[in-house]
Amino acid sequence: MNPLNPFFAVIIYLTAFITGYIIKSKYKTSSQTGRYECIDGMRGFLALGVFIHHASIWGEYFLTNSWQNCFLKSNLYPQFGETSVSLFFMITSFLFISKLLNADEKGFDWRQFFLSRILRLVPMYYFSLLLIVVIIMYLSQWHLNVGLSEFVKSIINWCFFTIYKTPLINNNASTSLVNSAVVWSLPYEWLFYFSLPLVSILILKIKPKIRYVILSLIFIIGFYKIHGVVQYHIYSFIGGAIAPVLLKFTSFNKKIKDAYSSIIILICLILIVQFNTAYNIYCILLITIIFTFIAMGTSLFGLLKNSTLKFLSEISYSTYLLHGILLFVLFNFGFNFEKIKLFTPLEYCLVIFSITPILVLISFLGFKYIEKPFMDKAKKIIWRGTI
Prior knowledge:
Number of strands: 0
Order of helices and strands: HHHHHHHHHHHHHHHHHH
Shape: globular
Radius of gyration: 21 Å
Structural class: mainly alpha
Strand content: under 5%
């Protein structure tokens, strides 16, 4: 077996599922059945998919000394990462376009919205950033390689989700490797959030206050000038907005039979892996079809309603932010890069299988002790109407 064998992904998913089941049973966690439970079930697949994507890339790097080899030799493993992120973008779009559509008559509280997003995304992100800084400084032997002001500026840039810049921390070339560069997607999440006041003008009867529209315009223009915009990421957000419109204004979801739509999803997945990247219009269309059916209740023959998958979904943000750090710590400190390059493909796979339960466990701890307390705080603030 090697890191590009399909069974590599299957075993990781099964190991994560079993671990999630044990943790869920032992700690008596209960995943609430939400309005969009099939989407809830899908998230766990996606975060683990990004982990599998990066594990396969690292594996090919150690075996061939080339970062690109994974993309050259496999269509499947690049899609684990790229399709998963596209679906994450669609989920974000779906949830908040749905909120706007459902708030049509009563208006939308933008202060509550931005506060809830800050309390949801920032705490776990800052914890992961703290780990990155500690690792970088350890690699630097706790010595500043740059001036103090430059060091502080680099940390500040990272504190703002790298929306402005993604500088090296302490001028260490390993900065992006420490977390597998997963933060690239977060500025696009914030781009979507700050775009919503403009989008809401087309949806809400009670229009947003002018200050939110101005803020939206400033952020969009600034983001474009700094980063440009990858059109396929924007297409993902647009694709995610189709399902809420269909749910709101049609009865299409009531006519869908789970078995038929599940088969369509499987066909789309097979078609997607004929491409070596998700960033083309054909893949985006296929991913949009998949997401739309799932958002409208398709459960893939009941799989997405599984309670363990919902548990893995709850901890998916921690999984997304922490898996790259876990891989780097394992490779750099657990074995060191030169030693692991001597591993056979099977030995490398066994190492990844063995850390999968650790990833699920630390993701659970991150969710329980960092994410959830702030999520509960946001709910209390919103419920009291104190903002």
